[in-house]
Write a structure and sequence with these properties.
Elements: H1 7-21, H2 28-43, H3 48-59, H4 65-68, H5 84-96, H6 103-107, H7 113-118, H8 126-144, H9 149-153, H10 156-159, H11 161-173, H12 176-181, H13 184-193, H14 200-213, H15 219-239, H16 243-255, H17 265-268, H18 276-292, H19 299-305, H20 328-342, H21 354-366, H22 372-380, H23 382-414
Helix pairs in contact: 2-3, 2-8, 2-11, 2-13, 5-23, 14-16, 15-16, 15-20, 15-23, 16-19, 16-20, 21-22
Length: 415
C-alpha cells in the first residue's frame, strides 16, 4: 500500500510544474515560505496548523503572475503598489485552493503599512505585511546573493517596526545568507511540510488547483482535463472499482496533462492540425509529466496518468506499452482522454455527434487500440456521462466568469 500523502509531496509536484512553466521565479516561492516560517516561529502566537497554511500560501503567493505576464516586474525589489498579479493571484487562491480563507494576504502582499493606512484599506490581514516582508527579503537575496540587514531595517515604515524586529531577532538564530544560498532552506522547509498529511479531499483540491493553473496558458487544456476527470471517474465507478481506486483514477485523470504546462502556447492553442514537428513537441508533455510526478511515492498515480496515450497494440507513446502492460485504470483514463477530444473541448474543433463518437470509439476498440469493455460501458451510459460532464464544466465556467468580474472590480477599487 502506498504511504500517506503529505503536503510535502503535493507542493513538490506543484513547484516542479511551475518551474517547468517558467524559470524566472525558480525557487522564489519556497524561499519566501522559508523566511516566513522563521518569522512566524519567532512571533510565537501562531499554531502549527496556521503556520502550515500561511507557508503553503507563501509558496504560491506569486501564482497570479503566470496569468497576467508580470513576472519581470516581480524582480523589482522596491515595487510596492497594487499590482495586477496580486489581485488575480488572490482570486485564484480564493476560488481554486484549499486555503481560500487566506486570499487577502496575497491580495495585500505588495502594500505597505503606510499605504493601507492612507487609503483606509481594512480588509488586508496583518499576515500580508509579514508575507510582503518575506518577499522583500527573498528578492534582495535573489538580486544580490546576500541579504543586507541594514537595508531591511530601513523598511520599518513599510513593514512595521514590529515585523522588522522579528526579522532581526530571527537573524540572530538563522544565517539566512547561508541557508538560502546553499539550499539548506529546502530541506528544513519540506521537513516542516512533511509533518502534515493530506486527506483525500485535500489531495483533490490541490490537484485541481494545479489543473486550473494550466489555464494561465491554455483554457482549452483545462476544459479538456475537467472532462477527462469527469468521464474517467464515472467509468471507474461503472467498472466496479472500490472508492479508493476510483479516487486514484480521478486524481490521475486530473494530472494526465500536467506536462502541457511546459508546452509552447502556440502549439497548445493552435486551431488547426499540428505539423509533424509541432506534434513531436506536443508528445513531450507525457515525458515531462512523468518527470514531474516521479520520485514522490505516487508511482501508481503517475503510471495511470502517463499511460493515456498508450495503445493496446503497442503503437502508443511514450513507452510503447501493449496489452496487459497497460493497467485497467490506465485504460480508463485513455478512453476518457479520447472521449474528451471527440467532444471537441480542445483545439477549438467542432464537437462530433453522439453517433460519430460511438462509431469512432467502437472502431478503435475493434482495432485493438483501446479497451472494448470500457468502450461498451461508455456507450451504454453515454447520456448520463454527458450529463455529468455538463455539470462539471458549467460549474467551472461560472466560477471563471465570476472571477473575471471580481478581478476588474478589485482593480478599479484599488487603483
Amino acid at each position: 500500500m502506498r504511504k500517506e500523502v503529505s503536503l510535502k509531496d503535493i507542493l513538490i509536484i506543484m513547484q516542479r510544474a511551475f518551474n517547468a512553466m517558467d524559470q524566472r521565479l525558480l525557487d522564489h516561492g519556497e524561499k519566501v515560505a522559508y523566511i516566513l516560517l522563521n518569522l512566524l516561529r519567532q512571533h510565537g502566537s501562531y499554531s502549527e496548523e496556521e503556520m502550515i497554511k500561511l507557508c503553503t500560501l507563501a509558496v504560491f503567493h506569486d501564482i497570479g503572475a503566470y496569468k497576467v505576464a508580470e513576472r519581470d516586474k516581480l524582480l523589482e525589489i522596491d515595487s510596492i503598489k497594487p499590482i495586477n498579479h496580486a489581485v488575480y493571484g488572490s482570486l485564484f487562491i480564493k476560488y481554486f485552493s484549499p486555503i481560500g480563507d487566506l486570499s487577502n494576504a496575497v491580495l495585500g502582499h505588495h502594500f505597505t503599512a503606510k499605504y493601507l493606512k492612507e487609503h483606509k484599506i481594512t480588509n488586508i490581514p496583518d499576515e500580508a505585511l509579514l508575507l510582503g516582508l518575506a518577499d522583500y527579503i527573498s528578492l534582495i537575496q535573489l538580486k544580490s546573493g546576500k541579504i543586507d540587514k541594514n537595508r531591511v531595517e530601513s523598511k520599518y515604515v513599510e513593514y512595521t517596526l514590529e515585523n522588522i524586529n522579528l526579522f532581526l531577532e530571527v537573524s540572530k538564530k538563522v544565517d539566512f545568507n547561508t541557508t538560502l544560498n546553499n539550499d539548506i532552506y529546502k530541506k528544513e522547509l519540506y521537513a516542516f511540510f512533511d509533518t502534515k498529511n493530506v486527506n483525500k479531499d485535500e489531495i483533490i483540491k490541490y490537484t485541481k488547483m494545479l489543473t486550473y493553473a494550466i489555464d494561465f496558458r491554455s483554457e482549452a487544456t483545462v476544459r479538456h482535463t475537467i472532462v477527462v476527470e469527469a468521464v474517467s471517474y464515472q467509468i471507474a465507478k461503472l467498472y466496479g472499482f472500490a472508492d479508493e481506486t476510483c479516487n486514484t483514477i480521478r486524481i490521475a485523470a486530473m494530472l494526465h496533462d500536467i506536462g502541457k504546462i511546459a508546452i509552447p502556447v502556440n502549439i497548445l492553442e493552435k486551431p488547426g492540425k499540428l505539423t509533424e514537428n509541432e506534434f513531436e513537441k506536443m508528445k513531450d508533455h507525457v515525458s515531462i509529466g512523468y518527470k514531474i510526478l516521479s520520485n514522490l511515492d505516487i508511482d501508481d498515480i503517475r503510471d495511470i496518468a502517463m499511460a493515456h496515450h498508450e495503445k493496446l497494440d503497442g503503437m502508443g507513446y511514450p513507452f510503447g506499452l501493449k496489452g496487459d502492460e497497460i493497467s485497467n485504470e490506465a485504460r480508463i483514463v485513455a478512453v476518457g482522454d479520447i472521449f474528451s477530444a471527440l467532444l471537441g473541448v480542445r483545439s477549438y474543433k467542432n464537437e462530433f455527434s453522439k453517433d460519430k463518437i460511438i462509431m469512432i470509439l467502437k472502431n478503435m476498440s475493434e482495432n485493438n487500440k483501446i479497451d472494448a469493455k470500457i468502450v461498451d460501458l461508455v456507450i451504454k451510459n453515454y447520456d448520463s456521462i454527458i450529463e455529468e460532464i455538463k455539470e462539471e464544466t458549467d460549474s467551472l465556467i461560472k466560477i471563471y466568469e465570476n472571477m473575471k468580474d471580481e478581478y476588474n472590480e478589485l482593480l478599479k477599487d484599488l487603483k
